[in-house]
Amino acid sequence: MAKHFIGQTSTENPGYMQAQIRVPAAEELHAGQVVVAETLDASLGSKNLGVYAPTKVADATKDNIALVLNNGFETMTDGRRPDGQPDYTQYVYQAGEVVTAHRLLPETRYQVSVDACDASVASATIVPGDKLVPQDGSFDLKYEAKATNATAKNYLVIEAVKYFRLGGQSGMDMARALVVRAKMA
Question: Could you tell me the pTM of the whole model?
């Protein structure tokens, strides 16, 4: 079964919360993953004022993270865009592509699909109050039960489980998504 990667804000948010990031060499990113976007991409030259070189989380207790959002349309290997009604929730962003991530400022709401997280989320019995937290050395969010203290500086508290309606070629299918709120330790 296809995976559906969802990472989107639930409300309009100011531009300063956004970080344009360029997918690192030899990496792929998808919506719902997290990055550290603190350093401008020097390889783009001195006129680059807004595209960051993201890294994996090095220390979840100290790093400020940004959530990769669903961005535009996939580009095929020959440079074309897909015909018809593609399902953007299946897109994987390739090295060198510039995509939008959203800085996790407290109390901002998002939707993140279960497929976008590591396997601990899919296998968990999720209840409101549980958390999605970044993990060191990874772009993926992992599960933590609400009874545990947060192990990260920025994390997401799960408010509800919902089913996100897929469009395009997926027709009437649904993807399991989490309504989450950003928190700071």
Answer: 0.87
